[in-house]
Amino acid sequence: MATRVKNIPSPAILMNSMRSIGYSFKAAVADILDNSISASAKNTWIYFPAYDCGNLYLAILDDGFGMSKSELFNAMKYGSEKEFYGEKDLGRFGIGLKSASLSQCKVLTVLSKKDSKINAYRWDLDAVKDEWECLELTESEMQECPCYEKLEELSQGTLVLWQNFDIAYKKSNGHTYEYLSEKLEECEGHLRLIFHRFMSRKTNPVSFYINDDKLTGYDPFLENHSKTDPKKPSEIPVTYEENGVEKKAYIRVQQYILPHQNDLDKKDIELLGGIEALKDNQGFFIYRNDRLIIYGTWFRLSSRYVNNELYKYGRIKVDIPNSLDEIWDIDIKKQNAVIPKNIINLLRKSVMNVCEISKEKTGKRARLESDADSAGIWTKNVSRNGKDIFHINTQAPFIKGFLDSFRDEDRAKILRFIDVISSNLPFDDIYVSVCNKNNETEADEGINDSLIMMGIEQFHTIKETRQCSDDVALEKLCKYPPFNDERTAKEIRRRIKGDE
Ligand SMILES: Nc1ncnc2c1ncn2[C@@H]1O[C@H](COP(=O)(O)OP(=O)(O)OP(=O)(O)O)[C@@H](O)[C@H]1O
Ligand SMILES: [Mg+2]
Questions:
Q1: Of all atoms in ligand 1, which is nearest to the CA of residue 64?
Q2: Less CB within 10 Å around the terminal CB: N or C of the chain?
Q3: Whose CA is nearest to atom 28 of ligand 1?
């Protein structure tokens, strides 16, 4: 019979290897914040120096229930022991605090306040050799820690400190401060999205701050927009085994169709996380205990439905409880999950449904606009290198009617003039303005008087050349841009016929 032989891992080697399990900076920060949320924090603060002070640190502070000395000692252990994880807990492996932190830095210090007492332990990778020995900080060592006074002010809470950013130093050729500042900026968007449900929930919301600036959550479903179309949620029962006992849990699935891009104003786009988020974040949003773990993918459930302009209005919200972690193969970084086989077909149906609705929505607008397009003032072509180019459509009735009133040589001059204007379209500025579109401004815009005057002139030309009635001439005029706009057409009719 085989004998049991102790084979203790080398701490220095294991801790260093664990640094490379693939945490990004933002995922590592999120892992620390998971712990704060599980500790019932109402507020979490991230502090990073406002200038390169030489002693760089990243501090994550919370006002959660904190830890006693023995609890903190256990928390610092690689593989913290826990009797059980509550159903709302975001933790699972007993390793996130250490592995996430030390993936970004070499010195991790955790200070925690409970029952008015502050304790602190530190892992310093350079100090770890052959033993699993962490450092217990003295009172004066604690006081030297950045943000110590902020923890002291709280009645309870935890302060996680990262120092000695060797990897950032190497990656940035010594420009660690600039590198980390950039990473923190990236991180802000990530936190606003993955924790958005904690920020906006009615009871016990959690506030997140970066250097005292409060973060507002994104809303990838624009739940409060009148044109968002949330479908009826469904619950999929799943049975699983726990300690030999068969249990049942539910996966909640809800499909959403977002409003058309033209129905979004500046605030909506901000709430989505930017105009790119509309296309990039289509597909599944998988939440584990309200914390977003995966988003912006259709999971390749069908070769047809991949991230694409056509499907950008489709979203599927999936809520999974932590009791189903094993079935979903949740990874240590809580960044990956695999759809369980027995629900793939059900989810595939949802994908088909939202994608087809989204496609229809994209296509419908395009069809509505295409009739007018052939007579539109601007036409869009695609250049040889695939870029969109816009030109004034000299065949549009409005432009053609105008050009026809000139002699040939003048017409040639005007055409050259039009060509120069067309090719100098401030494309980038227009793009930015469209992204920042604000409906209020649009509503305030008055009717363009020059446009009305031109419309009236063209009305008379049509009447003369066609020898038709007022009504027929008006109908012809107002069929095409720019006079087919409802308000413009109404105003021209009013001025010609005196109609109200
Ligand atoms: N901010 C905090 N406030 C209170 N307790 C904390 C805090 N951070 C960590 N802990 C305690 O330390 C333990 C270990 O944290 P760690 O992140 O290493 O593992 P985990 O959260 O249990 O699981 P996972 O590896 O999935 O994150 C937690 O279970 C919790 O009991
Ligand atoms: Mg954790």
A1: 3
A2: N
A3: 75
